[in-house]
Each structure stands twice: as structure tokens, then as C-alpha cells.
Protein 1
Amino acid sequence: MEAAWREGNSSVASFMLQKITDNAQHLTHLAPSDVKIGDLKRSILRSLSRAYFTSSSHDPENLSRAEVALQELITSVDDSADKASSEYQQLRWMRLAILKRRKARDPELLHAFKSIIDHMQLSETNVTEATADVVAAFDSLPEADVELSKVSAAACITLLWQCGDRLYNAKKWNDAAEWFRIGIHPALKGMGPSTGSKCMRKAALCHVQQREYAMAASDIRHCASNEAATCYVTLLIAVYQGLEDEAIKAARDMGQAANFDRNMLLLATQLAHESNMKALLLSVLDTLLQAVNVREGDTITEAMVLIRCSIRLLLKLLAEPAANKPILIKTLVEHFSTANSLVQQALSVQKASLVVKDISWLWRTAYNTAVQGCSEWDNSETALTDLFQVATELLTVYCDTVLVDVDADVYLHLINASFSAITGRVFHTRQVIGQNGSIEESHLRTLTSDIEVCRKKILAITEKALRNDEDVTRVQSYAHVLRVFEIEMACRLGNWIAVTDIVTETDALAVETFEAIADILWEEKSCPVDILFTALEALLHASLDHQALAVNRFSRWLRAMCTILLSRNTPADRVKALKYVEQASTVMDGSADDPDDDELFYPMDERQWLLGTAYNTGVECLHASLLDEAKRWFETSTVICKFVPEGRKRSEQISETYTHLLARYRG
């Protein structure tokens, strides 16, 4: 009052004096205990602020005075117990009017609006009326072709969200959804499409809480599909609707979104687990795994946890009766390959030692799964080969990384996995050639090189780590089989020099290996006779040295060798053939007498062939005046007569014929 009087504002001073007098008269009727200084102060401040505000149209400086008085009054109001009374709300509205009159900035206006909204008494009636008013206001805007400014639109959006959030927290989800849905009105498009998407996501979440999933799905379709938050809400709705395929698609889209946050996928992981959607959980884990990059600083341990969870899930899905095995097997192999790639990345940045236990788990699981798949998975040869190859590479890293001594069993598993992987590749190559008639030469050369590397690796491990004789014997048999594979690939490539080199390495090869090599060369029409003979000769020598070849098979290969030697028809070849025939008579002498014993009985047709061949060769030598050689052939034929029916009679006939022919050629 005094300030107004000094400034010559008599009307304001008179008004304030009247108010003070009225308050004084009112206080005289109250008991001293009922008089509170705070109430008097608020009354005076209220009157001052109103007076200054009213007179500010004549004196603009009074507007600042009104704001100061009102601010002090509101501060005392906020400290009182009844801060939401209608009288106090009027004061807040007055502050908003003062701010608008002095054209305050947006933050101050928003703060004033927030204070009003925070102290509103919401009810069904006024919420419905407010919603209707806002809707009506927005409906009138398009008709007037008006677009709110960015500041005004931001203020409206803020109010909408605050009202919606308040209703959402009060579990009035349908009302909250209506407030949020207003945010996509054309009048607010100045805020950009992201704001509208956020409003509709909030509305969709309200319907999810109300279990109105169809309406939630309708709302979420109004949102930008390339936003991670939209994908997450879509996933949430699909899960509650039981639509696993749609949920999987949303999870994958989430990983491709620009504002992707791994925390969203972690929430999706929990949601999929609680919903028992294994396929969705697998998809979410895969998306998480794709976001991991060991080279860029992500922890390898985190990546290993994800890949192990994914592999466990796949194995559980494979064990289900109605599992789609071809798809799951393919996915499983891809995950093991991904795990192997992660291990190689960790190895390249020298972090493999941090996950040795994970590598151990991975190679054991890959190996055991492949072994089990050999008996349970149909038409999955390629997948099994890939699994064994992954197990081989993981085992190699494990043996090179582990700080303690590696058990011999681990090395045995490495040998088994290596051999199984290369064997699978050979079988696949045969299958492709059988179907297409041919295969690329580069593939054969690569496979040949890999077979040789595998054989040398197996032998090196055997020499380094294996001490058990039984294990060594088994591993040597692997090496023999790999030799056969090398022969097969060399034949397909026409590399006969390599074939000769392999065949001549006789010391470490078993009889069965030579026989397999001979079978391959015998079937190969383009194989040179010299190379075939070398293989057959090595086979017979090995069988005679080790007495390991069955008599019936020995007779077959001996006949082939003698045929080759006699077809050359050189003195040296005939002498060599004669030695083999003599060796055959020795074998026949020690063979079984029972024709039913296929393994030990020298076949009768082979005996007859030997007898006829020895006799005819002797006759040819006599015609060629090779008397000494002819004599040896005839003598051998008479020896063979002991092992054929009516042998004595035939022996006498051969002797008579030989004597007669010898006399004629000498005469």
C-alpha cells in the first residue's frame, strides 16, 4: 500500500487500505488463538497480486510486482496441507495469466501448466469433458486449416502425455489411450512423425494392459515400422496374441532398426522365456548375438553365453517329437559355425584364453551331436560333416590354448573328428559325381590336399601324444584309409605319378589298404597297366609277408598279375610270372581241403587256370626253343596237378607230352 501511495497510484493504495481494514475488522471477531499470521500474510499477498495485475494495464511495471507477490504466495501455498483447493488453483491460473501477459518463454509456461495439472482433481466427469473439449478443439482445427506452432504443439503434447500418464498409473487404461491417441492429430504434425509414433505406442500399451490386443495391434500399425520401440511393442502384442511368427519377425526387425538398444532385446528374451516360446527366444538370442562384435570391444564371454544358450535351445527343439529336423539341423550347424567364427575372432585378438571352458563345451557338444546325428539324422551327411569339421577346428584351438597338459583322450577326439570330417567330404564328393557325372577339378585338388594334411596331422598327433598300442593301431588304420582316399582322388584327377608314389610307400600300409587300392585301380579304365601291376605286386608281397589276405582273394589278384606279365611276353616278365605261379602252388599246398571254407580254400577254377596257363606257356616256350624255361613251366604244371581232380593222370599226360615235344624239337 505504501509503495503504491509513494508512486502516486492512489486507486491501488485505496484498494489495499480497504482490504487491510476489512481484514483487521474480521480479526477483531476472532479469538487470539485462532489468528494465524500465515493466513493473514496469504490474504495480503493475494490482494496485492490481484491489485497489481489489475493495474498493470495502466502501469506495466506493476506486472512484475504482481508476479513477485504471487510467487511468494504460491510458495507458501505449496507448503500447506491443502495445496489442491480451488482457491489455490485460481492462484496458479493467475500466475499463468501473468506469464502470458509478459510473454514469458516456453519453459516458464510449461512449468506453470505442470503445476496446474499436478494439482487437478480428476474425476470421470471432468476427464470425459476435458477429452471431449480437446477432441472438439482439434476437430475444428482442420476446418480452419490451422497448424499449431512447434511451441504450442509441444505444450499440447506435454499436457496430453501428462494426463495420459496420470490415467495410466490410475489403471484407467481406456481413458489414457484416448488422451494419447489425440497426439496424432493433424494440428500437431509440426512435432514430426516420431512424436505421433510415440503417442500411438503409448495408446497401444494401454490396450495391452486392458487385454484388448486387436486394438493394440491396430494402434501400433500407425507407428513408424523402422523404430526399435515400435518393433518391441509389436513383439509384445504378438506374444500376448500367441503369434510366434509375427513376434519373431518383430525381433529381427528390431535388430535392424537405427535406434536399436540391446536392452530391448534383453526384455524380449525374458518375455519369450516366460511365454515358453522357444523359437522366439532363439530368434531374440540370434539378434543379440549379431549385435556382438568382439573386435570392437564387446566381451567374448557375453558372446559365448549367447551362443551356448542358442545351441542348448536348438538341441531341446530337436529332441521334440514334432520337430522340423531339416530346418533345425541347418540352424544348429550355422550356430556352431558362428561359435567357431567367434572363437577365431577371440583368437585373433588374443582373448581365446578367457573362454577356454566355453571352447571345451562347444567342441564336446559339436562332437557328441555329430556322433548322435550319425544314427538319428536322415539325409544329413553334409551337416554331419560340417559339425565334425567345426569340432576339429575348436579342438585344435583348445589344444593350442589350454594351459594344462591335454589328455590323450582329447587328442583321440581330435583325430576322430578330423578323420570323420574328411571322410564325410569324400563321401559327398562321390555322391555329387554319381548324380552329376563329374565335379570341378579345383574341388578335387582341394580335397586331395586336405586329405594329405589330415593324414600327416593324424600321424603327428599319434607320434606326439598316443602311447596306448590299441589307440595307435586304430589311428594307423585311419591313415591307411586316407591313403586309399588319396589314391581315389588322384585317379579322378589322372595324376598317375601321385598314385605311383603312394603305392610304393609300402612299409606303413596294411594288406587291406593295398587291396582297396588295387580295387580302385582295377576299376579305373584309364589306369596304366604298369601302375596297376605295381599295386598288385605290392598287394601280393604284403599279403605274403603278413599272411593277412584271404586265399580266395590272393588267387584273384595273382591271376591278374600273371595275366599282365604274360601279356607282355618278355623273358623277364615270364620268369616273374613263373615265380608267382610257383608261389601259388606253395599257397595251395597250405590251403584248406574243404571247398566250403571260402577264406582258406584255393578256388578250384583258379587251380585249373594255373594248370592250363603253366602248360600252355611251356608249350609256347618249346616252340620258341626256350628249352630251359619250357622245362620249368612243365615241371610247375605237374606240381599243380596234385591240387586238381585226377591230378596223377594229368601229370602223366603232361610228362608224356613234354617228352614227345622235347624229342621232336631236339631231333
Protein 2
Amino acid sequence: MERILCTTYYPNLSGIGLYNIDIERAINIFSDECFFTCTYKNQISSLIIDINTNGEQSLTGNENTLLFTRIFTTFTNLRILNIGPSSICYQHLSFNLSPPTVISSTLLELHVCLSRFHDCLHLLDGRFDQLRIFHVKIAFIELSSLIFNNKGKLSNLRSFTLFCDNTTDGYYQLILPLLHRMSNLEELDLSLLVWTDNTFIDGNNLKFNIIHHMPLLKRFTFNIHSSTHFYNQDNLPSNEYIQETLKNFENKQIISSIDYFHENKYSGMFNSVRRVSLFDERSFEHEFFLRITQSFPFMEKLILINNKRQNNKQFRKSKNINQDLSIIEYPYLIELDLSKAQKDYYEQFLFDIKTCLPNNIRVNMDYRLVKKVTRNFRRPTTRMGLVEGNLNEKEKQLFMKK
């Protein structure tokens, strides 16, 4: 690329795409004046950059902040910026607590993959005041103690796309307040997995909480999977009722379905079963594992495959409910496989306030998730002897290099 850009001048060059590039190389490119002369600095209006970490480590907040700063310092007339597309969690950008200080009055369109919701709020704090199109994929939309005061209207924004494939409990507290800042939207696209308190996201909810706040909206595309816990099963909403709430949507092409997963689905006792494999598209809650131990009291091997976060855990956290859960015992378990399970299930089995496991058990785990859950093996409530006993020196050295 050095030879191409430095050999001659390209008067019609207005866009550049950099693919499968590592973060250090990208930062160096935007720091080297040999690549982009003063002419290119004003001439380039479109940039696509796809960061690749080779699956070895997460990008740090400082690296992302530096990259953002260098991009807008290098291209002073940038109108379209696409950082992505990344489908792997550790390739999403995160600014942590040090967002970039860049300001651009020329940027009109931004496509980006972010780690958490507050990273999105950083980018919508007024630094890109002319932004008209914003497409964002966020890995985690979670309630947090961080306080943001950027509540100003995003009056120039005309198109907004939000995608998150992890369950969020922040629909009312985070997503709706952000959408209410976008009163001039003409196009809206939402793809969400939502956990709510004793209600579904139906047509009435969408009309009252979203559509009525956007008088200029022309196109609304949504794929929303909402889950809840109904404690009263006498009057459960039917699929016909959900469809009825959607009947007044203009130019509608809407498909709805509803399914109920009853707490007493698994019952009975199977004394002869020794090996159990669990997979579901729904989350496994603490109460579910309690019923599993009751149904399979002599279970020796348990394989867990589930990438959905525990909804009840998020609900208790959002409501500040410090409920004492009954400790689940697995007296005969000798092998546990969590290698294809989401982080919440590491907490489920490694926290001694939730689960009691035998000392001689063999566990198959993802080291990076173990390190995160145990806070670098210093968390007092985790079974450190169990964790360390299942990691031999070769495994430790291998993962430490990563």
C-alpha cells in the first residue's frame, strides 16, 4: 500500500478500505504522513476498516481511543466511517472510561461494532453533531452504575440501526431513553433480545413507547424476542392477542409467535441415568438446575451447552434483590463440561453460594472465562481449588501467552 499511495497522486480517490488489519498496524498507518499527504487528508471522505485480533486478545480502551483520534486527525473531511463488520465479541470496540476527544462536523454516516451500551452513549454525546445515519452492533446492553448526562436531542439523525444478540434487561432504562432523543428519525431498525418484568413487547408497547415519539418515521423494521417470567398463569397473553396489537401497523409484514416454558416441564426421578447433556435456546436458571439434581440424583457427568444469559440473575440484579438461593449439591458428579456455556453458568457452578461440587471433579472450561469470573483467581466466593486443580501447568502457560 505504501508503494501505491506514495508513487503517484490519485485525484479521484475518495474512499479507502482496510480489511483484516491488526490494531497496531492500523494506528501506525494513520500516524505515518507518508501514507496520506495533505491532499488525501482533505480528499478522503469514506473509510472502511476491519480490525482483526486473530482471536488472541481483546482490544484495549486506550487502543480504540487512539485509533479513533488518529482517524479523524488524518482525514479532516471524513463523511462515512465503517469500523467493522465484526461478528466476534472480542473484536468489538470499547472505550472503557476513556472515550476519544475527537469532534467532527463533517461525519454523516457511522457504522461500528461496540462492546457495551455506554460506548454507544460516548459516540452520541454531541461530538458528531451532523450525523444522519448510525448503524451500531452492541455486544452487551446492561444496566450499570455509570451516569451519563448526554440527554440532548439528536435532531439530525435520520436513520438508526441497533443490533444486539445478547439478552438485555435495559429496554426501558437504556434503549427507550436513547430512542426518545431521536425524534426526527425516518428509518429505524431494531434487532433485540429483551427480558422484561411480567410483560411482552407487543404492538401496543411499540406504538406507545417508540412510534408516537417519532412523527417523521417512514420505515420501522424490528426483530424483537422478548422474554418474561409470569408468576400468574391464569391470564397468559395468546399469540392471537399479540397479533391483534399489531394489526394497525401500516404496510405491515409482521410475523409473531409466542411460546411458554413451564417451570414443571421436567419432572420425575431417573435413578439409572449417569450422563446428562443439556442444550436449549432459552436460558437455564438456578431453579432449573435444582430440578435437574432432583430428577437425576446419581448423575456423574454433565454437559452444558447454552449461550443465553440467565434472565433471573439479571432480574435480581436490576431490582437489587439479594435473595439467598438454595445451594445445589452434586454428590456423585465426577465430570462437568462448561466449554460451550455462557459466562453466567461458570458463576452458577463455581460460586460456592450457588453450587456445591465434589473436590475430585474434572471440569472442562474456557480459561479466559474462568479468569474473568474469578477476577483473575482472586474472587473469594469461587471454588479456587476446583479451578486450579483442573488447569495443568501446560494449559496455564498456553493461556497466559494469549
Protein 3
Amino acid sequence: MKCKLRYQIGATIMAVNLLMLGAGKSAGADTLWMKSGDRISGEITKVTATKLTIKTHFAGTLEVQLAAVKTMVSGQPVKFISRHGQIHTAYVEPNVQGTGWRETRKEPLIAANLPAPLRAPVAVAVAAIPAKPQSVFGPHWNNELDLGATNITGNTQQTEFTGSVRFHYLNQPNELNMNVTGAYGTTNGVQDAGRLGFNGIYRRLLPQWQPHNRWYAFGETHELYDAIRGISFQTNDLVGLGYKVFTGPKFEADVRAGPGYLYETFFHGGSVSTATASAGWHMKYVLDSQVNITNNDLYTQGLKTAYDYYATSITALNIALPQVYRGFGLRLEFDDFYDNTAGTTGKKRNDTRLVAALTLKW
């Protein structure tokens, strides 16, 4: 009886030890608590002076700015790289107050010694997959690559392959938008259409002007080569002031205006060179975290003759699809270009383009 009892007690102790060992291993998963309230679990592979890398099961490998992390804990040694390139490894655990972290040589007793604010409830929701990765340019950049097709009406009826690279920098009071776009079209295997353009606008808020954070100064440029309309080179440059009419989280809109200069040359040898006055409009409506609509219009009037005027309107539906791939999306766009001087080249003054493109944030 005593032997049997000793055997049962020994088996029970062994089972408890195995359970505790298994619990320790599962609790040893690395965890980040973000200042936003989110929690990310995985394996912290590297910590530098400004950011860390964590390998997650659901969202792949993420790079996270340390400034956005409230605290963290690791179940295995983590590689630390200093500003000077020195490397060492250590465990990491939360400070007692639950904010910040410290390095330690011993594996943290995670479940028991977590500060009270960080102890997980019984049920823990999986953190949502971010709609886009952080840009390789840094935290203030939001860049995009587009590849798709364009259906053109006006001077021709055909479909072109199109692509663009968009750069957006926002760090108030400064904002910069740049867009390089190109298109290539063929008929019966012969290249008969092409388009290459660059658009850029820099805005700087003037917070000292009343009402605050509404007025801004801007500089803007538009460069274009368009084989369909016979434009060998066009540059439309302007500077001026803008005003943010609406600045809400769901809807934003602003207007801008100022003087400028336009130069245009055509395949037939003619050209236009004139001072201009321009006015523009920008609008963005956010349906939800994954869908928004944008509209950008610009009207330019030449000051040399009333005949020289130009108008562009670009309306786009942008859909983020993080469920397919993080940073992946779809862009449907309608472009309307009107160039009144094109009549001198024997071309139609108005062209429209319907664009469908796949997008990738980078």
C-alpha cells in the first residue's frame, strides 16, 4: 500500500512538473504592449536604438518603432544593437510600474511577475493586422506602387499599360506629395502611344495665421510628355496660398490659388510660353479604415491670351486589402484632361482615362 501510495504521489509530482515546464515554455513567448493599447506576440529577433523586429505568426515579420512601445517581455535572449554597432544579447522584462523595460540575464517569470496593468485577461483578442507596413523611408512616409491598365477615350480609343510610383511625406507643418507616372500603348504590335509625367506639390502650414492650422503656402509642378496629344514637353509650375476648408477625420478639403508659368512644345514644332493664374481643389472622404475617395482638380489660365487654358480632374477610389497581403490594395481612377491649345495641333482638346490598378504600400 505504501509503495503504491508513493508511486501515485511521485507520478502526480512528475505530472505537475511537466505541466509547469510546459506552461513556462508557452508563457515564454515574446510580447509587446503598445502605447495605443494593442498587444503583439511573437519572437523578438532584434532591438536597435530606434526600433525592434518581431516575427509574428499572423502578420509575418514586423518592424516597430520603440517610441510606440509601452513595454515588452521576452522568453529567450534578444539581440541588441547599439547606435555604434555593438551587439549583445539579454532577456527583457517590464519595469515594475508597467511602463518601460529593462534587460536581464535571467529568463523572466512572466506570468507571475507581470505588473498588474499588464496581466492578460482570460480571453485575449488577436491584434488586428495593420493595413500597411511602415515605409522603408521612415515613419513619416506613405509610399505606393501602382500597376494596371488604362482605357483612353478622346484622341484615341485604346488600352494602355500604366504604372506609377507615389511618395507622400507628412510631418507637420510640412507635407510633400510626388507622383511619377507612365503609360505604354500599342496597336497591332506597334508602339503608337506613350505618356510620362511627374507631379509634385509641397505644402507648409502657416499656424500663426488665423484661424490656426488652416492656411498654408505651397509650391507645385507638373511635367508631361504625351504622344497621343502630340505634346513633346509641358511644364506647369505655380506657387501661392491654400486654405483647409474641412479638416475632420472623415472628410477633408482644401482650396489653393496662385500665379505661375506654363511652357509647352508640340510634335509639329509649335509652342506656348505664358505666365498663368491657377486654382486647385483637393478632397478626401474616408468611408472606413480600408476605403477612401479622393478628388484633385486644377485649372490654369494663360495670361498672354484667353485661348490658353487647361483643366485636369482626377477622382480615385482607393481600397486597402490587408486580408490578401499587408500593404496590398486596389485603385480605380477616372482622369479628365482638357487642353484648349491642343486644337492648334489638330488634336482633340479633351482626353479621358479610366484606370484600374493594383497597389502596394512600401
Protein 4
Amino acid sequence: AAAAAAAPPPPWIPQQPHDDIVINSNNNNTLRNIGIVSLYTSNIAEYAKPSAFLMREYCKRHGYAFFEMTERMSSSARSAPWDKLLAVAMHLDAVQDVVLWMDAD
């Protein structure tokens, strides 16, 4: 019997790196050109974890840094969306060029 062919990946997962983005070529993983930051808490973890998995795999494929955060950044009275600013700011020094925020949901 012939071996079954592997199922193709879902269409939303890119198959080739973008040619227009220069990825840091150093192999020490200490500083990247592009980083993606995402934060979620336990109240949305059920659907945020699969999203984070896809983001992590996307970053691995393209050589980007991925920063997954699972706790609030602040205990202030401000609502949780304000934590996005703190989360991005926290990782600015770890990335050379671009830090992107990606909502977990």
C-alpha cells in the first residue's frame, strides 16, 4: 500500500518567507529585526492558546521573535487593553527594527 500523502497546511499559513522582509542573519537569537508580542489571560486561554501556537510557528518559520505573555502587566485600575502598551514597550530593546502587537483573539 502506498503511503498516504501529508495533508497540505491550511491556506492561512504561508509556505514561503516574504521576499521583501530582511530577516536578521545572526544565529545567536539575541536580537531580531522583527518581533511579535501577544498577551492573553486565563479567561480567554481556551481560544488564545491555539492562536499563540500559530503565531509562534509563523515566527519560527520567518525567523521573527515571538513574545507570548499570559499575565496582566499592571495591577492598575486601567482596563486590560492598556497592558498592550506596556507589553510592547517591554520588548522594544529585544528587537532591532519592528515590534508588532497581535491580539490573542
